[in-house]
Each structure stands twice: as structure tokens, then as C-alpha cells.
Design a protein that fits this description.
This protein is α+β, with helices and mostly antiparallel strands. Helices cover 27% and strands 24% of the residues. It is built from 4 helices and 8 strands; from the N terminus they run E-H-H-E-E-H-E-E-E-H-E-E. Helix 1 runs antiparallel to helix 2. The radius of gyration is 17 Å and the shape is globular.
């Protein structure tokens, strides 16, 4: 007898590059995972991870230039060291970033919330073992996504540390093409 494990269909949605997009994606992810019978604890962890990934994309990255994605990418997995110096608390220079790009970190990341040309993409799927993988793709930014060590009084900077504590694995994929897309993904164990 030959048995083939099947992966549940993937879900993908383009959402506004801003707070409205975070809420839309969270609601859809929650409904989708519940409809597939995912354990409630995994649903809530996945919603939190998606929220953090989208919030980081809106704060630190540009929206997607286009919905097209390329297959050529560099994949970085948690735990792999990168010897370049940090550009700021919890951030490293993005591949190919120059000093001018570092100054752009202070500039607004998007031309305006919610317009057709200011979108990011949220994706998720469930593998045959029940593992939920959530990913957010944006237009890249002047820094690399890295966990920070904020002070106790800091208002932000904990997102990737939260993701790291909930996920069994997470990483970043940099598009090698001209669009400069960046995808941050996290896999959550099925329960």
C-alpha cells in the first residue's frame, strides 16, 4: 500500500501596507485555521506571529513593487551568524545597502496606507504534520530583520523575539531579483 501525505492548500492575500492590513489578515488567518480544525492554541500563536510579521513589514519595509515573486532567493535560517555590523538596535544593513539607504531608515516606509500600490503579501499553509507556516513578503528595506534586545521601557523591538519563542523555526528569504522582495517566515508546531 502506498500512502501520499498531502499538504493543505496554501492561502495568500495582499493586504494594505499599514495597520488596516494587519487586522484584515489576522481575521482571515484565524477563520481559515479554525475551519481546517487547527488546535486553538496554534491558531492564536499563528495569529500573533502574523501580526508581528505584518507590523514589522509596515514599520521597517517598503510595500511590494508588484505581486510577482521570483524563485531566486537567498535563505537565512535562525541561528546562522552574519558578520556585518548592526545598523541600529536589532537591525543589520540589508544586502547591498549603502550609507544613503541607512539614512532612509528614518523616512516613512510607504507612500500611503491602503492604496493599490502599497501592499504586502501574507501567506500561510499547514503541512501534513500539522505545522503551520506563516510568511509575510514586502518590498524590502534598508535593514535586515533581526531580533533586538530592547530596554525594559522601550515601546517596541520585541516582535522577532516573540516569534522566535513561539516558532520551531523562522527565517528570512531575500529575493535575488531587481524587485528586492523580502519574505520573513515562521513555522509553528502543530498541537
Amino acid at each position: 500500500m502506498f500512502v501520499v501525505a498531502q499538504q493543505a492548500p496554501a492561502s495568500s492575500m495582499a493586504v494594505p501596507h499599514g495597520p488596516d492590513g494587519v487586522g484584515l489578515a489576522r481575521r482571515r488567518l484565524r477563520a481559515d485555521l479554525r475551519a481546517r480544525g487547527t488546535a486553538e492554541a496554534t491558531v492564536e500563536d499563528a495569529v500573533l506571529v502574523l501580526s508581528e510579521l505584518l507590523s514589522n513589514a509596515c514599520r521597517h519595509a517598503r510595500p511590494l513593487a508588484t505581486e510577482a515573486a521570483t524563485a531566486d532567493a537567498e535563505v537565512l535560517v535562525r541561528g546562522r551568524a552574519d558578520p556585518r555590523p548592526a545598523a541600529g538596535p536589532g537591525q543589520e544593513p540589508a544586502p547591498g545597502a549603502d550609507a544613503g539607504a541607512q539614512a532612509a531608515e528614518e523616512a516613512p516606509a510607504a507612500p500611503g496606507p491602503g492604496t493599490a500600490d502599497t501592499r504586502v503579501r501574507a501567506d500561510w499553509h499547514i503541512d501534513p504534520d500539522g505545522r503551520v507556516t506563516v510568511a509575510v513578503t514586502d518590498g524590502g528595506g534598508p535593514t535586515r530583520p533581526l531580533p533586538a534586545t530592547p530596554s525594559v521601557t522601550a515601546k517596541g523591538g520585541r516582535g522577532l523575539a516573540i516569534i522566535s519563542s513561539l516558532a520551531c523555526d523562522w527565517g528570512v528569504r531575500y529575493d535575488a531579483g531587481p524587485l528586492g522582495e523580502v519574505t520573513v517566515w515562521a513555522s509553528l508546531p502543530g498541537r
